[in-house]
Amino acid sequence: MSASRTSWLVLAAAAALLAGCAARPPLRSVDWAAGEAPAAASARDVDDLNRAVAAMLDEEYARAAVMLLELGPRFEALGDDRRAAECLFWLGFCREKQGRTSEAAEFYRRVLSEHPDQPAARQAADRLSLLAAE
Amino acid sequence: MTEHDDKPTEGLERLLRHWGAEQAAREAAPPERPAPPAFEAAPPKHRGGTLVLRWAPLAAAAGLLVAAVAFFVAGPVSRRGTEMARQQADQLREPEAATAPTQAGETTAQVERLRAELEAALAAKQAAEARLEGAVPREQHEAQLARLREEFLADKAALIAGMSARIAGLNQAVEARSREADAAAERVEALTEQLAAAQSRAEAAEQRLAAAAPDEQFRKRHEALAAEYANLLALHRESMTRAREAEAAFSTAQVRTQTLMDNFQRLYVSAVAPGREGLAARRSASRRTAMVARCGELARRTDDRQMAELLRDAVVLFTRLELLDPRDADEARAFGALVARSNVVERIDRLLAAGKPMDEARTTLFEAKLILSGAEHVG
């Protein structure tokens, strides 16, 4: 008798839960264009950026550039302007070290035009000055 | 009288007899009793069957009521109670439909029997409830037992695996120790042989010495050598003691130097980036001392390949330092890992110790060391 009553209670609770879930509003995707707060980059993203910089320390600029070309759009998608600008700057740095100075200057100029308020803009301006002096 | 004459007489006698008989009968009949007054009218006598017919429905109703109570009480508990109540009701309805009970005593006995069956049904209900209450914990207990058994088997398997690994390790260690013991035994054996040979040589020498004539010059030389040996031994002990003291002094000096360096570094960073601490102070120091530009300029000017590589790495590290957000724990950790990986501080130390750099480079490298040293521990 008690088991039967318990079974009915569990069934009623499950029905109530189902009704509550059905009544919940659906999850919505984040709309960056609407000015919502960007999601922070994960520790994995930061580690990937660090690996790219480490590749530059090893003077493996081509490998670093490949990693940065993949990372930049990821930070752009997250709305992380600071790191997106840094990726563009490091891409210019890699091209400069590879001797592809025109491409390097193009990346530095993109930093200045697309992310003028980021710390990378100052570094990009310095590198552009050095390239012009050379 | 004749026979013919007698016939009218016989007829008359017959008539007379007939009349007399009727008269006699009328006279013999008792007189009719007068009707009693209405208020004295005795109640009509009922026969026994009429009385039974009046109480039988009541008894049946009582029986039905008892059966309904039994059905109500025992019905939800078990099918057995339901069945019993239904049988009781059937038993009660059947006599009602067929023939009504003829005696009230039978009804009473039936009620007693139904009450006894009701009590039996209640007892069965309680027993069923007790079984029902005992059944749920038993299921839980069995489930728990199965789970515990699975956990036990998993633990057992893990234990067996661990023990096997440990036993294998112990076997390997035992084998290694056994090999070491064998080697040691071989060494002891060889030393024993060497000792025996030395002893035999010493004995031979003693025999030769005893056989030879005492040589005063040899004795003096021996004494001089012994004295020299004693002096050398004393000198050796003294030098060992001084070496230990020098080592301790060197360690103390190292600690003092490191402490001095740390204090100087804190002083430098706080002077270059006042009001800041940690990675933020280092970033400010790098920006204010223009380390990226200075290191880059030196890297372009130097002819030393080792220094050029070091300065190129310093440019990358200082650029990264100036671009990161020092409040971000992930970036601080990542930068620390980068500095540790580059080993740039120790490379600067080696270059400075070698005395290679010129004055300007020496100053830049020293400042770079001050800013970057300890960055791997700053979070």
Greatest interface: A-B, 22 and 28 residues
Total helical elements of chain B: 11
Question: Averaging pLDDT over every residue of chain A, what do you get?
Answer: 80
CATH class of chain A: Mainly Alpha
Q: Please, what is the average pLDDT of chain B?
A: 78
What gross morphology of chain A would you assign?
Answer: elongated
Helix percentage range of chain B: over 70%
Count, helices of chain A = 6
User: Helix share of residues of chain A?
Assistant: over 70%
> Nearest-angstrom radius of gyration of chain A?
25 Å
Distance between the amino and carboxyl termini of chain A: 93 Å
Number of domains of chain A: 1
CATH architecture heading of chain A: Alpha Horseshoe
Which range does the strand content of chain B fall in? under 5%
Helix and strand run of chain B: HHHHHHHHHHH
Q: Could you explain how this protein is built, in words?
A:
The complex is a heterodimer of chains A (about 130) and B (about 375). Helix content of chain A is about 75%, strand content about 0%. The longest helix of chain A is centred in the first third of the chain and has 22 residues, at about 1-25. Chain A has helices spanning about 1-25, 45-55, 60-80, 80-95, 100-115, 120-134. Helices cover about 85% and strands about 0% of the residues of chain B. Chain B is mainly α and about 375 residues long. Among the domains of chain B are: about 50-140; about 215-270; about 275-375. The interface of A and B includes residues 57, 86 and 89 of A.
